[in-house]
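Quick one: C-alpha cells for this chain, please?
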Amino acid sequence: MTVSLPLVFVLGAIAWAAIKFLGVRLWVAVVIALFGFWLSHTFLAPAIESGTRSGVDVVNGTHE
C-alpha cells in the first residue's frame, strides 16, 4: 500500500510537534518559516529543491 503525503504536511506536523512537545516558541517557528520563504526566492532555490527531491527519493527508495 502506497501512502502519498505532501512534504509541506510532514514538515508542518514536525513543526507542530516541536512547538507542542519540545517547547519551541511559536515566534521561532514563524521566523524559520519566513527564512525558508525568503530563501526560496534566491539563487539557492534550485539547489535546495534538487536536494530535497533527492532526499525524498532516497527515503522512498526510487533510485533512477
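The chain has three helices and no strands.
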